[in-house]
Amino acid sequence: MTTAVKTIKVCGLLRDDGACGFYRVDQPLTKLAQHSGGGFKRELLRPGEPAEVGAKKIDADIVVMPRPNSESFYKKLLLAQELGKKVVIDHDDNVFQVSPLSPHFEEFGTEEVTIEFEDGKTFRITDEMVNFKANRERIDWIRRCMEKADAVTVTTARLATIYSEFNGSVYVLPNCVDLNIWKPVDIVKDGTFRIGWQGGFSHYEDFVILRDVLPRILKQYKQVVFVGVGHNWEGVLKKCPREQIEFCPWAPTAAHPYRMALLNLDLQLIPLRETVFNAHKSEIKWAEAGALGCPAVTSYVAPYDTLYEPGNGAFVENRTENWITGISMLIDDSILRAAAGRQARSTVKNRFDADLEWIKWERAYMEILNS
Q1: Residue 285 maps to which CATH number?
Q2: Are residues 167 and 37 located together in one domain of the fold?
Q3: Which of 7, 43, 49, 65 is deepest in the core (most CB within 10 A)?
Q4: pTM, rounded to two decimals
Q5: Residue 44 reports pLDDT greater than 80
Q6: Mean of the per-residue pLDDT values of the chain
Q7: Residue 53 pLDDT > 70, yes or no?
Q8: C-alpha separations of 31 from 158, 213, 306, 356 in Å
Q9: Which residues contact 220 (CB under 8 A, 6 or more apart)?
Q10: Residue 108, helix vs strand vs coil
């Protein structure tokens, strides 16, 4: 007599259709269902779905809640647990250390702060600008949700140290890339050298690292075109020749890997300011570039410092001359650049391949179910 093996149903709540929802919920649950031999089934609960549809989907063994931050989320968490579900909370950023220069400070800032700029000028963010009382309540709900959850999942070991203060079951499940869609394409070069950067509106203090770098690079190398993807920092680029700049707004998440591949970049820039918040980020931008076989010049700060090895692209300190040296080295030496691109893709295969790393989700979820 054969005993049927129970299929474990995991329902992931999608907050939006952005990269966080894709990398933290959609893709890992898809890979888990795909590779587990029928052991896991994926359900995705999308915003705005009818209540009867949501009720059916949430009838799962495990419910994954990304970034819960309100009383409403807390009540949903309690209800799911009362119905016998295990609730897993996922965080991919350190919400307790959001930079005051980030637009997200309006949601997560909890006290007045004075910003000091490089020119000596200062600017104070006060409670007349930001509702600190509401934000402290939001942070409190984040803590309460984590304390009540059956487990918390995060992207890096550094982030795990932050959230383990609130929950004894914290699992590191890294952001990964699907190498079936993140892959190089063979496009004939047109004589230009294309340097890319991608990032959203929260990355001002990171992108401004390149303020004095890009004008000098573009002046020295007339064949270079800078390609910005995402938020357009026109003020930072005002010293750059306009004819050597391209800008591309965000594409839908599903199309983003293909669009990045078709941009035909020779080199990517990943500047990151050394801050407490940034230290708890994941290496996803580097992994995306490496998956395309595109070498990068990257700030030698956490989290990217763990990726450094000889030949794996250029990792530089956040000084103008270091950035110019790193970029120039990879522009001037095509053999070195090609080797760095190959080695970067090899690193991604070994550390960030979604078709291999899915097993970490299986192990974590099985432990959570059996706890």
Answers
A1: 3.40.50.2000
A2: yes
A3: 65
A4: 0.93
A5: yes
A6: 94
A7: no
A8: 25, 40, 25, 9
A9: 328
A10: helix
Is there a single domain that holds both residue 267 and residue 330?
Answer: yes
Give the mean pLDDT of 102-127: 88
How far from the centroid of its chain's Cα atoms is residue 24's Cα?
9
Report the C-alpha gap between 361 and 197 in whole angstroms: 31
Nearest Cα neighbor of 307 from 49, 16, 316, 105 is: 316
Are residues 217 and 241 in contact, defined by beta-carbon separation less than 8 angstroms?
Answer: no
Contact 62, 8 (CB under 8 A): yes
Confidence tier at 58 by pLDDT (50, 70, 90)? confident
Q: Cis omega before residue 303 (within 30°)? A: yes
CA distance linking residue 152 with residue 88, whole number of Å: 6
Place 3 in a pLDDT band, splitting at 50, 70 and 90.
very low
Tell me the two tokens of residue 365: 């979820």
Collapsing DSSP to helix, strand or coil, 10 comes out as strand
β-sheet bridge partners, residue 298:
270, 315
Would you list the DSSP string of 120-152?
S-EEEE-TTTS-HHHHHHHHHHHHHHHHHSSEE
Indicate the pLDDT class of residue 287, thresholds 50, 70 and 90: very high
